[in-house]
């Protein structure tokens, strides 16, 4: 079934050309309704909580954006071996993946109750997906994000066994390569040294928005499949 388009947002995010060229933070407020989230992603924005309960949502469009070219994923020999040690599933435990990513014991945890609820709603409508790694019937790693056309916007990942989240990323890239043709964009928000080691590169905000425009015209990919 194709994703269900929710009612449009009552908020507007403005023209990205008018965003502050030196600030990743481009908006404060609005809500986390499905229509608002989709409108934001289609404009190149994503939400994060302020960190204080009750404060408005912050919206970011990084000046330097982290993206993973699908032909640039770095898979080491040890990671290739790890890929044979896990079972990969898609969209079978979305809520559990988000809950694991939101574990308050994780350093720099940012996913609060409102974010969890918002992405669960997106998942129910067919826009948010999880890629999971399993071992011995136990969920040991995974990632989740939002898919719109040729865009997959990665939100967070977790692991309970070595390389489990990396294996989920490898599986995601393989599915994105296989399921549709055309402009594809795997967004990881900000580049970190860990992500750089996997092949993530930085592009300017303007370049990201150009790629996003092309990616949004790609037919919806079918991420669902057997591991």
CATH class of the largest domain: Alpha Beta
H/E series, N to C? Answer: EHEEEHEHHEEEHEHEH
Number of strands: 10
CATH superfamily of the largest domain, please?
Answer: Leucyl/phenylalanyl-tRNA-protein transferase, C-terminal domain
Residue share in helix: 25-40%
Overall number of structural domains: 2
Oligomer: single chain
Mean pLDDT: 92
Q: Helix segment count?
A: 7
Strand content: 15-25%
SSE map:
Blueprint: E1 25-28, H1 34-43, E2 46-48, E3 58-60, E4 64-67, H2 77-83, E5 87-90, H3 94-101, H4 113-124, E6 128-135, E7 138-148, E8 151-159, H5 164-179, E9 185-189, H6 193-196, E10 201-204, H7 205-215
Parallel strand pairs: 8-9
Antiparallel strand pairs: 1-3, 2-3, 4-9, 4-10, 5-6, 6-7, 7-8
Helix pairs in contact: 2-5, 3-4
Describe, in plain words, how this protein is organized in 3D:
The protein has 227 residues and is α+β, with helices and mostly antiparallel strands. It folds into 2 domains: 16-63, 2-Layer Sandwich (Alpha-Beta Plaits); 66-215, Leucyl/phenylalanyl-tRNA-protein transferase, C-terminal domain (Aminopeptidase), CATH 3.40.630.70. 30% of the residues lie in helices and 24% in strands. The chain is built from 7 helices and 10 strands. It has helices at 34-43, 77-83, 94-101, 113-124, 164-179, 193-196, 205-215, and strands spanning 25-28, 46-48, 58-60, 64-67, 87-90, 128-135, 138-148, 151-159, 185-189, 201-204. A 7-stranded mixed sheet has the order 5-6-7-8-9-4-10, sandwiched between helices. The protein has a 3-stranded antiparallel sheet with strand order 1-3-2. Helix 3 (94-101) packs antiparallel against helix 4. The mean pLDDT is 92.
């Amino acid at each position: 079934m194709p994703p269900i388009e929710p009612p449009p947002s009552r908020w507007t995010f403005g023209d990205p050309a008018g965003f502050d060229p030196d600030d990743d933070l481009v908006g404060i407020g609005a809500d986390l309704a499905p229509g608002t989230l989709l409108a934001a992603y289609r404009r190149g924005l994503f939400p994060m909580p302020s960190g204080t309960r009750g404060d408005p949502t912050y919206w970011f469009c990084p000046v330097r954006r982290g993206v993973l070219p699908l032909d640039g994923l770095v898979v080491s020999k040890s990671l290739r071996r790890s890929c044979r040690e896990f079972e990969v599933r898609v969209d079978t435990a979305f809520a559990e993946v988000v809950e694991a990513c939101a574990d308050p014991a994780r350093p720099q945890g940012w996913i609060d109750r409102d974010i969890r609820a918002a992405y669960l709603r997106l998942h129910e409508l067919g826009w948010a997906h999880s890629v999971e790694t399993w071992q011995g019937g136990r969920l040991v790693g995974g990632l989740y994000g939002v898919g719109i056309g040729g865009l997959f916007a990665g939100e967070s990942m977790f692991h309970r066994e070595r390389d489990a989240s990396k294996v989920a990323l490898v599986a995601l890239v393989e599915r994105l390569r296989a399921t549709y043709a055309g402009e594809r964009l795997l967004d990881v928000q900000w580049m970190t040294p860990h992500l750089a080691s996997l092949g993530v590169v930085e592009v300017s905000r303007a370049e990201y928005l150009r790629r996003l425009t092309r990616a949004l015209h790609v037919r919806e990919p079918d991420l669902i499949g057997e591991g």
